[in-house]
Design brief:
Helix content is 19%, strand content 30%. By secondary structure, the chain is of the alpha+beta class. The radius of gyration is 21 Å and the shape is globular.
Length: 294
């Protein structure tokens, strides 16, 4: 009962806040104050109803045997349109960077050697020095696998802690001099589909259910911007294809090595946890601010 009341309150607060954003205005000039974070939203388009700017500052992505902590901020930005059965279509950022590319360091580097948590500090430092440098280190970068129009948002699910709040088709770029420039897990034809929720997941075994969360709401610019802090979006039911393009012309030799390092990546063996802050404003409010600040 308590959770149902919390869902209802969260959904109601979000609806009221977003309704308050609907201000009239046109023309283009310059955004100011807290509106500047939405500069890449296509807010001048009448198809864009609202704008979003989301920053993921922490969390982790587990792909088979590899766990990669999110240490560098990842930004999702753009606009979304009118709801159809509670699902809103997404529009790409004006500068083309809808999802920012933030290389995350893979613990243990290419060799995958990770010290035990109880290891002495000197051992940890030596392993990091030898296996996570510019030659032996490994970066993992999340990228969109399909056009931004394939992203979907459900605001009610986001606020109410149920169902799919954010659906994203992504791929993982593995970066190391030995692997070449085109080593990927996932592609435009075989993307990793993340059905992220602030509620509870229902993954196949061996994964078990985990829960996301809606943080707290804050209103900026006299209530015209809604900021949701300390959100947790999760999905641990997705699958991933085998690695491809690793090692360039010898990919037929390197791909199997990468796949052996990753282990099983079928559904039930992977996890995405995104801890973020999400800001939302109506395109009308942005056009009004834009017009008032030539």
């Amino acid at each position: 009962m308590h959770k149902q009341r919390r869902r209802a309150l969260a959904t109601a607060c979000l609806a009221v806040a977003l309704a308050a954003l609907g201000l009239a205005g046109q023309a283009q000039a310059k955004l100011t104050g807290n509106y500047t974070r939405f500069a890449q939203c296509p807010f001048t388009s009448l198809s864009t109803i609202k704008c979003i700017y989301s920053v993921t500052n922490s969390g982790e992505v587990v792909l088979g045997n590899k766990k990669v902590p999110i240490e560098k901020p990842v930004v999702l930005q753009g606009g979304f349109g009118e709801e159809v059965e509670e699902i809103s279509p997404f529009f790409a950022a004006s500068n083309g960077i809808t999802l920012s590319k933030a290389p995350q360091s893979v613990p243990g580097g290419l060799a995958g050697i990770v010290p035990e948590a109880s290891s002495p500090p000197l051992v940890k430092a030596l392993i990091k020095f030898f296996f996570e440098n510019s030659l032996t280190g490994l970066n993992s970068t999340l990228e969109l696998a399909k056009p931004a129009t394939e992203i979907r948002i459900n605001e009610n699910a986001l606020a109410g802690e149920f169902g799919v709040a954010l659906k994203m088709p992504v791929k993982v770029h593995l970066e190391n001099p030995f692997l070449g420039k085109n080593c990927y897990i996932g592609s435009s034809s075989t993307p990793l589909i993340w059905n992220l929720t602030t509620g509870a997941t229902s993954p196949p075994a061996p994964n078990t259910s985990i829960s996301g969360a809606v943080g707290f709401f804050e209103f900026l610019e006299e209530g015209r911007i809604l900021e949701m802090k300390n959100n947790k979006l999760v999905d641990n039911a997705w699958s991933a294809p085998s690695a491809s393009g690793c090692g360039g012309i010898i990919s037929f030799l390197v791909n199997p090595i990468v796949n052996a390092q990753l282990g099983t990546t079928t559904a039930g063996h992977n996890t995405a946890i995104l801890n973020n802050t999400i800001s939302v404003a109506s395109s009308a409010a942005l056009r009004k601010n834009d017009k008032e600040n030539p």
